[in-house]
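Subject: Sanity check before I submit

Could someone independently write out the structure tokens for this chain? I want to compare against mine line by line before I put it in a report. The sequence has 352 residues.
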Amino acid sequence: MFMLKFSSKIISWYWKNRRFLPWKETKDPYKIWVSEIILQQTRVEQGRSYYLRFIENFPSVAVLAKANEEDVLHLWQGLGYYSRARNMHTAAKQIIADFNGVFPRNYHDILSLKGVGEYTAKAIASYSYNDAYAVVDANVKRIIARIYGIVEAVDNLSTKKQITLILEGLLDKTQAAVFNQAMMDFGSLVCLAKNPKCGICIFSADCKAYKQNTTDLIPVKKAKIKKKKRYFHYIICVDKNKNTLIHKRIKKDIWQHLYEFPLFEDKQILSKKDIVKKINMPARSLALSETKTHILSHQIINANFYILQCENCENFSETPDYNGFKLIKLAEIRQFPFPKIIEQYITNILFN
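---
Independent answer below. Compare away.
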């Protein structure tokens, strides 16, 4: 009985309280795919503007597949987790090659796309085609863990399976898309991670966490991984002709395929004297321009930006240490995709 009541109650609540978001007003699997990838590791408020710009610039799979990767990354600039954009670009080409340019219709074909995992495949299948899949994200885990009083860590595989089984039992298979959207919105608007609105919750009478006054303790999560600290020293070479040097990060590391200035990485912040030794080239002046800290999911980047005044950057680009660097006009620098920490430096310091 509770299962039947749960589904009807959450769907009824949804039609009265749902959030109006652009990707929820469509059944187009391409647009839903774009939204799901953007919303990974991104807040809805920030993701909305990126979604609208992405769809405006790449309105279809075909347009995205034909696009230059740098243009895709440039549009993604500031969102982080750039592998998402690279994978989407690859997957668009995959759809053209393997599915005749038509977005896959079933879960298993969707799952075969580059960068698409179980959660995303189920979300697309549910929201686009109303396929009866239970979509389990952080919001859903929190709701189910609290109602059922689950005290095991929700990021454990066994707990996730338990929650998925519970949700599959609650799911209205004839209204899967609406049910899943309702769960997302309920977690975002009522069953909040902090200070949940239990006073207006339609499930408070059945919620074990609420009855036991443990909503602030549930859901339980594993201890966070200690973040690795890295120390970057960027050299912004500027010559008398207003040229500078940049290069694309090719190695499998953070910010792959994005551009950056010449970089020295060390195990600690280096002094200006140390930097001068490492540069090993004549310079009119070297000055510390800015110090910034950028926090990623598993790393903390401490970056120092140095301005290097010189006669001719082109001479430096021909030396072994700078071989492969691109010589560009400083005024053209915004045409290239950079990691957020560098893009912010360019906007707020270099051109301010």
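---
OP: Matches mine. For the report I'm noting this point. Residues 12 and 312 are 68 Å apart (CA to CA).
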